[in-house]
Amino acid sequence: MKRHLPAAVVACWGLLNGVLLAVLAVYGESALVYWLWGAVVLVLQLAAVAVLLSSRAAPDHHVRYHVPDRGAGAVPAAAVGLLLVGLCFVYGRWLLAVAVPLLGVSAALAARGTAARER
Questions:
Q1: Secondary structure of the chain in the HEC alphabet?
Q2: How many Å apart are CA 75 and CA 20, to the nearest integer?
Q3: Residues 14, 44: contact at Cβ < 8 Å?
Q4: DSSP state, 29?
Q5: Distance CA 5, CA 8 (A)
Q6: How far apart are CA 64 and CA 74, in angstroms?
Q7: pTM confidence score
Q8: pLDDT tens-digit profile of 38-92?
């Protein structure tokens, strides 16, 4: 199972969407919703098969990537923080309670860096 873990993750994501499709069926949605959500489940399962075939083709192909900039680890936190700031306009200012500390963490990561210093 460890060799094909990415394929299992994608397949489980597709199965979870299948369960959500069944929940929609219980509540009696329209036929268009079933077709659209079913297509999503099908695409996810096809992606899982593609990932499985890819992992079988080159199972020992693990690459360790080095981030060239020490502050690059701040980018994901900043992106989520800015997304939450944008969502404040839709859902209210309470999201700033999460966004501002996250932007502070990203600023600290950008200033200090995330990788060990090379000697």
A1: CCCCHHHHHHHHHHHHHHHHHHHHHHHCCCHHHHHHHHHHHHHHHHHHHHHHHHHHHCCCCCCCCCCCCHHHHHHHHHHHHHHHHHHHHHHCHHHHHHHHHHHHHHHHHHHHCCCCCCC
A2: 32
A3: yes
A4: -
A5: 5
A6: 19
A7: 0.47
A8: 898 888 888 888 887 877 766 555 566 665 677 778 888 999 999 999 999 999 9
